[in-house]
Amino acid sequence: MIQTLYIARHGFRSSWINGDRSDRNDSLSELGLKQAHDLASYLVSLAEDKKPTAIFSSPFHRCLQTSQLTSIALNVPIYVDHWISEWYSDLTASKAIKQPEPPSADILRADFPEIDADAWSSLWYPPSTGENVSQITERMSTFLSRFIPKVESTLSPAKHERILLVTHAAPVIALVRNLLHETESRVKPGCCSISEFERNLDFESEESEWVPIRIGDCAHVSGDIREWGFEDYY
What we know:
By secondary structure, the protein is an alpha/beta fold. It has helices at residues 15-18, 30-45, 61-74, 90-94, 105-108, 133-154, 169-180; strands at residues 4-9, 54-57, 78-80, 162-167, 194-199, 210-217.
């Protein structure tokens, strides 16, 4: 059974340095790689019963680069799930900007051998036509309702008690809001920030099943963390 959920945002993007926003599946910048190292070092420093036992990553390059360093440091697999891919707003869609459609885990494994493409397949592929805030919130709500039981029924429940999700700012916000049951909560994750939730096994219907330990913690991250929230877009 999953006991702990860690939710991380990717590191600083190269497009934020060079200004080239045409590549929406860009890699991490040099700073972003340093921040990914910061995240890996921090997670390695945790007690054995606190370290993530598996990583689920967005298929975007910047998230896989962030995941890879932690995967190597902890010797745990990366599972790719397109359900936690980047969010493209309804405003972006109205501009008819073509969004990237990352390939399958099988193809991505050529560049990221830490990916286990055999034990896990993406549960769902989000639309590339754009979503509003309500839709990304609903996407993450449905993801959580299906992802957690799928992990517990597909992977070794005794082994994978602590899961790290590596994704993008908007999905991080939507995941945190769903776990808090507060759809308007102000959340502004920075690069390689960590949010941590512990499962409340004795929860009753009026209580939350997931207890927040910290939200958007960047104490371990160096450099510009570029916090982002929905209020920065609309």
